[in-house]
Amino acid sequence: MKVAVIIPCYNEEASIKKVVDGLRSVSLTEQFELFPIVVNDCSTDTTLDVIKKLEVVYLNLAINLGIGGAVQAGFKYALNNNFDIAVQLDGDGQHPAEQISELIKPILCNELDVVIGSRFISKEGFQSTFFRRLGINYFKWLNKILIGKRITDSTSGFRAINRNALEIVCNYYPDDYPEPEALILYSLNDLRIGEIPVVMKERSGGVSSIRSYKSIYYMVKVTLAMLFVYVNLKFNGKRSAL
Amino acid sequence: MENVVPYKIQIISIIGAVLFMFLVFRLIVKRKLKIEYAILWMLCTFVLLVFAIWRNGLDLIAHMLGVFYAPALIFLGAIFAIVIFLVHMSVVNTKQEQQIKDLAQQLALLKEELGKNK
Fold first, then answer.
1. Partner-chain contact A69 B104, CB within 8 Å
2. Domain A2-236 is classified in which CATH homologous superfamily?
3. Which of A16, A57, A144, A168 holds its CA 20 to 30 A away from the CA of A48?
C-alpha cells in the first residue's frame, strides 16, 4: 500500500529537516511504503530552501492558505496519485513519525477508515497545558453529543485516513482549525473512526497558531463549525457539505 | 400634506440621483462594474429618483405604514438595503476565497506534476 505522509509547514525551517529525516528512518514492512509530501504554505522564512535540499515531493503554495488549505492540497495530491492511505504529520516535530506504522495498522487491516493518534489514552508524553486540556475535554463532550462517539483527542492532527475518507476531504475540508470539524464530517459520512494511543513530543521549533485571545476565537469558531457541518450533513444529505 | 419636502432639496435629490445613475453607467461601460451588481445600484437610484420627483409619495407611504416621521422611512429603507448588500458581499467574498484556494492548490499540484519543483 502506498502511504502519503502529508507534512504541512509554515515557517518550520528549524524543524522540517528533522521531521522528514525522522520519517525516513521509520522501518518499513512489506505491507506499506511511505512517501513524504511536504506542503509549504507560503512560508516567509527559508523553509522552501530547506525543503528543496531534502529531495522530497513537495507542493509549494503561492499564497498562504492556512493549515486546512495546505493539508487539503496534500490530500488532493494523494488522491490524484492513487495513494491508498494519507497520514497527516505536523511540520513542527510534535508528531511521532515512528508510530505511523501503528497508526495505519487499523486501516491496513480494514478495521477503520480514519485513525487518530491520541495523547490521552495512555497519558504519556507531552500532554499540553491545563487550559488546552480543558478545551479538548469540551470537544470530547461536544463530539459525544453530535456523533455519539467518544473521541479522547479530537484536536489531534496526527491522523491516517483511507481512500474513502480522502474523497470526502478533497471535496470539502475546513480552512482553519480543521481537526474537530473533520471528525463530524467523517462520522456523518458513515466512516469508521478510531483512536490509538501515541506519545507526542513538545514542538521542536516554531510557535502554536493558537494563543491567548485566539483560543477564545478558536473555541467559538470550532463549535460553530462543528454544529453547522453537522446540520449541513444531517439535513442536506451526505457527501454534499458545501 | 403639501410641500413636505422643500423644492431646494428636491432639486438636489434629483441631481444627486441622476449623477449617481451616470456614475453607475460609466462604471459599467468601462467594465469596472459587473451588470449583476449594477442592477441593484440602478434599482436604488431609481427608487431615489422616484421619491425625489414624486414629493408626496414618501409621506403617503409613511402615513399608510403608520410611520410618524416620514424621513425615518428613508433611513429604514437605506439601512435595510445596505445590510442586505453587505451580506451579499460576504457571500461573494466567501465564494471568491474558496475559488482562490482551489486555484492555489491546483497551481501547486500542477507545478509539482510538471517537475518545476525540481
1. yes
2. Spore Coat Polysaccharide Biosynthesis Protein SpsA; Chain A (3.90.550.10)
3. A168
